[in-house]
Every structure is written in structure tokens, then in C-alpha cells.
Fold this sequence. Notes:
This protein is α+β, with helices and mostly antiparallel strands. 32% of the residues lie in helices and 29% in strands. It has four domains: 90 residues, Rossmann fold, CATH 3.40.50; 68 residues, Dna Ligase, domain 1, CATH 3.30.1490; 128 residues, ATP-grasp fold, B domain (D-amino Acid Aminotransferase, Chain A, domain 1, 2-Layer Sandwich), CATH 3.30.470.20; 99 residues, Phosphoribosylglycinamide synthetase, C-terminal domain (Glycinamide Ribonucleotide Synthetase, Chain A, domain 4, Alpha-Beta Complex). The strands form five sheets. Strands 10, 11, 14, 15, 16, 17, 19, 22 and 23 form a nine-stranded antiparallel β-sheet that branches. A five-stranded parallel β-sheet has the order 3-2-1-4-5, with helices on both faces. Strand 7 and strand 8 form a beta hairpin. Helix 1 packs parallel to helix 10 and helix 7 runs antiparallel to helix 8. The longest helix is centred in the middle third of the chain and has 21 residues. The N and C termini lie far apart (50 Å).
Amino acid sequence: MDILVVGNGGREHALCWKIAQSPKCTKLFCAPGNAGIANVAECVNIQPQEILNLVNFAKNNLIDLVVVGPEVPLVMGLVDELELEGIKTFGPNQAAAELEGSKAFMKDLFTKYNIPTAKYSKFTNFNDAVSYVKSHEVPIVLKASGLAAGKGVIVAQTEIEAIRGLDEIMNQNRFGEAGQEVVIEEFLTGEEASFFVLVDGKTALPLLSAQDHKTAYDGDKGPNTGGMGAYSPAPIITKAIERRIMSSIIKPIIEGMANEGCPYKGILFAGLMIKDGEPKTLEFNVRFGDPECQTLMRLLDSDLVEALEATVNGNLDRIQLKWKNEIAIVVVMAAKGYPGSYSTGSIINNLNAAEQIDGTKVFHSGTRKDSTKYVSDGGRVLGITATGKNINECRARSYKAIEAINWTDGFYRTDIGWRIINNKNK
Length: 426
């Protein structure tokens, strides 16, 4: 099969790396890709939001399967356009992608289909939103309803913070059009985790759980980012909790989406809060998490292409996935200044030395090649992954690999995996 992956981040590097291992893959393209992806796929200079150009490339190159990485082209309707041309595509169509494209739509579905979640209300009027905040307890959670690259959430600790946050979202357009409608939620306590399932419209096949680290700095301090590290599986999600997630969250949303006339196909990523063994749904995403995907791909011991094909063809019930009996971790190296302003173009050395350490693999998130050198080309630049029999072994390998890398303009969190270590020490 000739396969095209759409995207240019660490998630797409991990997907390309795994797809390239499949005997079913004869030719692999990535649009636009990055310098790391170029080692396993032919990179094509088309951006993920260039829908027409992607469709034309897939047609002209007789692509058998398109795998869409990021959410933006999904919400823009890339899958619909490809399917009109008879090109098989992994990912939800435009109607189903609204599950991530509109938090208001998502929360209304939760209510309609009795999916456990935080109490909420939605607003398009600033004064109405302020009145709501004044009549509810803090902390309180403000969410831009539209796509905001995983950064459209403000947890306000005081009423003043909440009103300032609403002003930033609704009046100052901090998240652009995404903030034209705001969802205000009660603040849930517990432990956050991510849960991933493949869905073919009717059947759901669980993958693994993961936990990511959203904030920029150690100790969960600093601004929210796209994710500074993750590990998989998440110990908080036991087999009993997984069964509860499948029965009370995944099954109802799949049936609900079909009932709404937009059956879901692709990867479904549930962001959850677990408290006293009970999962509640924070959000759904319609793509693999980044950086969680990097840990999942390191642990998958089956042919990814077979699973993607079965998802697209509607026969997931025939697939059984094998997983390595290990833990995987990813630590993100980002450009200094991220998630604020940062510079690009600084040289990164010794990546080969990092990958000589047992169990490690470096995925590129934001790099390009400048003659023979790798240089930074984004906010999140590298994802250093490691597998091992326990979290301490993973952490030791990953951080040893980071020490081998020579990149003066980078920074990273030193505490990825702290939850597992803290819970074990209790």
C-alpha cells in the first residue's frame, strides 16, 4: 500500500515510524513532515490545512490510505473531500470531528447521552458569562469552545481571575474565533488521564491509557502547553476502571454519534478525570494526543497499518492488538521561551548518541535540516522516548539520552513521571 500521513509533529513522526515497519507499506509520504520524518518517509511540501492540494496529491500519486494526524484538517473536512474521490482515509469526517471542533456541541452530547462530565453552561455573551461566574463557586474552568491547539482552557482560582479570563477570551480574542463561544464548567478534582480507542463506526477497540504533563515547568508550574511529556500506561486506569470507561463513556458516545447521523471513525481520545474509581469526561479529541502518541507507538507490538485499515473498512472486530509488557515515557525538549515567543534555527547536535542508549528513540516535533545539521524549527522540538520494565528505568534512559544531546537553546521538564513515583512512595 502507498500511504500518506498528514502532519509535521512528533505524533506524525511516531506514526510514520510505526507505519514504515509494516510489510503492508510499500511507499510512505508525509505532508509536510519534518527533518526526522524524512528518515522514514518522503516529505511533501503541503501544509495540513491545504485541503485541495492534499486531495490532488493523493489522487495523482494513487495513494491507498491517508492517515490524518492533526485536528485542524479533520475539522476542515479533509476526510470528506478524500472520500469523495474514493480515497480511504483514517480519521473522522467533518461532522464527527465537531466532537473536538466545538466543546459546546460535545458537552450537549454528554448531557443528551448521560455521559459523566462536569456541570457546565455555555455563553456567547460576555455579560451573561460574567453573571454566571458571579453566582458560582471558584475555582471554575473556562474553555474556548473552538480549536485552540490544546491551550484554550483557563482554570480561574478567583472570581476576578475568571472575569479577566472571560475578557481575554471573549473580548480580546486571545484564542481567536475559538473563543466566540465559551463553555464554563465546575472544577473537577482527582487525577487526569487519557484513554485511547480505535472506532470503526460501531466497534471500539481499546488501545492504552496515558498521562501527560501539560504545564511548561517542573512541579506542574507555568503556562499550559501542548504537552511537555507523557507516560503510558497510566496506573490510575485499572482494568476495572477501563471497563467503566468503555461502558459509561465510550459506548454511549459511539452510539450517540451514530444516532446523530455522524458515526465516528478514527482514533478517539478521551480526556478523563478519575476520582474514587469513577471516571468523568473532561473532553474528547478526534486525533492521537501529542506527545502521548509517541509512547503508544513505542509499546505497540502489532502491525499498525492492519489496525488503521480495519478501522477504515469497518471490521475492527477482527483485530487483536498486542502490547509490550513495559512502560514508555516521552520527555519533550522545547525551545526556550515556549509556549510564549521563541527563536528557531539553533543547531542540535548528538542525536545519534542519544539513540545509542538502550530502549530510546528520538521523535522530531519541530526540526529541519540546514545542510547536514538538524536545527530547531518550532516550539516543541524533540520528544525523547524510552521504554523499560518500570518508570525508574524509563526515566533514567530518557534523561540520559537528553544529557547526550547538545542543544543550548532547549529546555525540558526534569519531573516527567512524578505521579507514578509519588504514588509508589505513599
